[in-house]
């Protein structure tokens, strides 16, 4: 066995296999390994002509096949399977070697693993990889964390296999130390959930309020995809909506059960946001909408509840309504990204990661599920002002929302009147209106807290904390 492989991939399910092929197709010699050796041999038999593969049957063979410092990519299920693989390989490695975890790991696990392996002198590089099977093969968006030292040797390889944005820039950046890469990937997925939910709401409104058919809605999405909403998710939405079920001849979307599943990364985004105190209401509504859809018994039991009497739009009004939905979708999308980037900024501060938000937007322009023309605007906004308090503070986005807001509100009025649920659109608008409000009813909340629990409040006109003697003469005391 030669020790010539420049990189190794263990875990040859579809993502691992495609990533290994991507390295090989880009001229790297790749050692491949899987728990069951049959998969390893099948990969080499089927795709061996794409590049240089070194098939390894055992962990020892795999490690021996790698040039030093070793670069070992693990592509196994997040959680315990990842720990098991690390336990297997770490004792065989030497200081300076790198383990790259390309799975959807929780960033807290990545922080723990990085710390443990650092004590052995091994670099642990928790890396977000987005783009599904096709991205892994043809060029994903890659979000590595870990040490600067590891990125120096790994970065050029990742740049080579990554997607390239329209301007040719590789969609990979060193996100920051330890868990930064997996944190960024987690928020990517949260935004992915929000994007999908908003698109689903737009579809629902076009169908229920305007009365368009799925095929007609597909055409509307195709038109939108020519404009500022140009994105992978809008593109595939049109494909899904125009697809006809071969067995029944019905629109495919009508024969799929309406219960959305999830593997958990969107939920993590919300859980962590709660801990960090960041309002990601759009992402939360997207997660809850999936949960609600899955409560079939509850939904069954609620079918008879009263709703409004519905007046479908006339032919003449339909097209104008569709234009308004585009405005509502775009404005809500700006809010989702505002919330997601706020979470990355808060995580970066909490864990001292120093994440460059503009660089994150830049690497999401290609390869990943949320890739969109829009991300170039976000990159430009952060490039113009790295300390932008929020995306809504960017003049361009603020102006677009100002233009969209009347239609956004009109769409929500129609949705409310016709009884179509729009948790994503509504949460986005509520966030926008709350942020721009001069005064919030939080003052009343503080008064209530002081009334029942003497929790104190601060005044608008003087420094300090105060308490009103609610049960007594209602005079105020300094707390
Ligand atoms: C990606 C995706 C991917 C994710 C799927 C499924 O970036 O390629 O985010 O990592 O696992 O989208 O997610 P759910 O099953 O939770 O919808």
From TrEMBL:
Q: What class of enzyme is it?
A: oxidoreductase
The reply to whether NAD figures as a keyword in the UniProt entry is no
Record's catalysed reaction(s): 6-phospho-D-gluconate + NADP(+) = D-ribulose 5-phosphate + CO2 + NADPH
Name the Enzyme Commission number(s) assigned to this protein.
Answer: 1.1.1.44
Q: Return one GO MF term.
A: phosphogluconate dehydrogenase (decarboxylating) activity
Q: Which InterPro entries match?
A: 6-PGluconate_DH-like_C_sf (IPR008927), 6PGD_dom2 (IPR013328), 6PGDH_C (IPR006114), 6PGDH_Gnd/GntZ (IPR006113), 6PGDH_NADP-bd (IPR006115), 6PGdom_BS (IPR006184), NAD(P)-bd_dom_sf (IPR036291), Pgluconate_DH (IPR006183)
Keywords per UniProt: Gluconate utilization, NADP, Oxidoreductase, Pentose shunt
Kindly state the subunit structure of this protein: Homodimer.
Its protein name is: 6-phosphogluconate dehydrogenase, decarboxylating
Q: Which organism is it from?
A: Streptomyces polyasparticus
């Amino acid at each position: 066995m030669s020790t010539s492989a420049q990189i190794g991939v263990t875990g040859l399910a579809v993502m691992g296999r495609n990533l290994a092929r991507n390295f090989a197709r880009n001229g790297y010699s790749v050692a491949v390994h899987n728990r069951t050796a049959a998969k390893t041999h099948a990969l080499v038999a089927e795709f061996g002509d794409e590049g240089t593969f070194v098939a390894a049957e055992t962990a020892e063979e795999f490690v021996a096949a790698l040039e030093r410092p070793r670069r070992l990519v693990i592509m196994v299920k997040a959680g315990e399977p990842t720990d098991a693989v690390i336990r297997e390989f770490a004792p065989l490695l030497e200081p300076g070697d790198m383990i790259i975890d390309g799975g959807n790991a929780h960033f807290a696990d990545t922080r723990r693993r990085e710390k443990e392996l650092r004590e052995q002198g091994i670099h642990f590089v928790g890396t977000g990889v987005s783009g599904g099977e096709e991205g892994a093969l043809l060029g994903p968006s890659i979000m590595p964390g870990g040490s600067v030292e590891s990125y120096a040797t790994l970065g050029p390889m990742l740049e080579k296999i990554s997607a390239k944005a329209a301007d040719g820039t590789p969609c990979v950046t060193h996100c920051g130390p330890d868990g930064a890469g997996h944190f960024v990937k987690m928020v990517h997925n949260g935004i992915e959930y929000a994007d999908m939910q908003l698109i689903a709401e737009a579809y629902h409104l076009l169908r229920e309020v305007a009365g368009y058919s799925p095929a007609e809605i597909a055409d509307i999405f195709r038109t939108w995809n020519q404009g500022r909403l140009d994105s992978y998710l809008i593109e595939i939405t049109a494909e899904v909506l125009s697809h006809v079920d071969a067995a029944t001849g019905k629109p495919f979307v009508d024969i799929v059960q309406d219960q959305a599943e999830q593997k958990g990364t969107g939920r993590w985004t919300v859980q962590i946001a709660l801990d960090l105190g960041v309002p990601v209401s759009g992402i939360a509504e997207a997660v809850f909408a999936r949960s609600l859809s899955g409560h079939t018994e509850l939904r069954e039991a609620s079918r008879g509840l009263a709703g409004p009497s519905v007046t479908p739009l006339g032919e003449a009004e339909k097209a104008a309504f569709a234009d308004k939905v585009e405005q509502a979708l775009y404005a809500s999308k700006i809010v989702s990204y505002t919330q997601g980037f706020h979470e990355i900024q808060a995580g970066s501060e909490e864990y001292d990661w120093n994440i460059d938000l503009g660089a994150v937007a830049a690497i999401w322009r290609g390869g990943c599920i949320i890739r969109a023309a829009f991300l170039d605007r976000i990159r430009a906004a952060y490039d113009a002002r790295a300390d932008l308090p929020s995306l809504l503070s960017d003049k361009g986005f603020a102006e677009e929302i100002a233009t969209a807001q009347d239609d956004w509100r009109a769409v929500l009025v129609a949705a409310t009147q016709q009884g179509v649920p729009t948790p994503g659109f509504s949460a986005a608008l509520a966030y926008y209106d709350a942020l721009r409000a001069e005064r919030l009813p939080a003052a009343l909340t503080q008064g209530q807290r002081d009334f029942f629990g003497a929790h104190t409040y601060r005044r608008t006109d003087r420094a300090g904390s105060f308490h009103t003697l609610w049960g007594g003469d209602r005079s105020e005391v300094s707390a």
